[in-house]
Design a protein that fits this description.
It is a single chain. The chain is an alpha+beta fold. It has four domains: 95 residues; 94 residues, Beta-Lactamase, CATH 3.30.450.20; 74 residues; 147 residues, Heat Shock Protein 90. It contains eleven helices and twelve strands. Helix 8 packs parallel to helix 11, helix 9 crosses helix 10 and helix 10 packs antiparallel against helix 11.
Length: 452
Amino acid sequence: MALKRLSIPDIAGPSFLVGLALVILSWPLAAALDAYFEAGGFLEQLIHPGTGKVVLRLLFMGIQLAFILYITRIVGKYRQQGVQLKEALQDAEREKVLAQGILEAVGDAISMQDLNLEIVYQNQLHKDQMGAHAGERCYQAYQQKEDVCPGCHLARSFLDGQSHRNEVTTPSNKFYEIISTPLHDPSGKIVAGIEAVRDITARKLAELKIQKMNGELELRALELSAANRELETFSYSLSHDLRSYITCISLAQEVLVLRKGAHDPDLVQMVKPIEDSCRGMKELIEAMLTLSQLSRQEMRWELVPLSELALQVTLQLRQHDLKRCVEVSMLPGTSVMGDRQLLKIVLENLLGNAWKYTGKTSLPKIEFGVTERDGVRCYFVRDNGAGFDMAKREKLFLPFERLHSAREFPGTGVGLATVQRAVQRHGGEVWGEGEPGKGACFFFTLEERRGN
């Protein structure tokens, strides 16, 4: 705090002037005394005193003047100190009001106690919760005890100089957190302590609710895991039984053809639907097992050369259908972080669909590439085949939902559902765009990950 520099007239002007007047009046007073006790008149003693008297009078006036200056200086210092003390008290009062405002606005119930655990301050929230107990010992005011409570947190803070936190529960199921903090003077000596009482009932109730929910979720997870194991066992058992029946039917129709109908075109034509149905049933079982296993399969993240994988799938498609001539374009050098097996399933289904649905196109074209949508990297498979009606796009990824008849384009009806589940396992999305007779394009995204 900067103080205004004060001069002598500012500090003790009236006192100095009175003293100076007294010094000046001492000359005629001395002349009057000399005239009274000695010969001569007052005017003579005032105007023409003797040399010795002049010296004595001047000496006396000098002593008076020095004394007056000393007294003036002392009075000035006292006045200056009074001004400083007044300003210091005003500053202290402002600091007190500011500190009280902060303590009131903190939101916690706060009290201050001295080293004897006597309460010297309480904010209003503390008074509302605990009552006004300034001047009382805390253990007497709050616990009605005559001695310090065992394990008193504030006493511990006085001993080790550290802050301590304790949680307490009231009989009315209210939860409080008590925080004790020691206060130090400029020399580092502990002189008092602050106790903050925070109502954490809402937080504790939320934690208890979360714990309960976590327990229920763990129980549900165990139940779901058990149900999945049972379902997996059932699906394998069912698929094994179905395969056995299908194998028997397939063998029976083969034996029938070999024994009685090898040279009978009508019989061969009659049993052909049986052979096609058996083959389709086997493919459907495999597709359903693949779809059910996708959600449980452990992800093995690695750097996958997606372009090379797409090229391998395309070569396999060509080997299985050597009669067709399909123009295929691949964007080279595309690699992603993902599960190689799942990404191969995605490409097998998307490229397989593109190959299938361009079967009736005169100049079939298939493209695999990469683009960007709204700042997100997207991978796509585009063809110029049969396409589909966008009004029915919501059915694209539903199992067994078909937008084209099985006679026109045979298949299991679960390929795109398998693609969606595999892409979702990678944290991405898949969607399709198309137009009847003008082809389709399927886009998918993958979670961005960096290689190890």
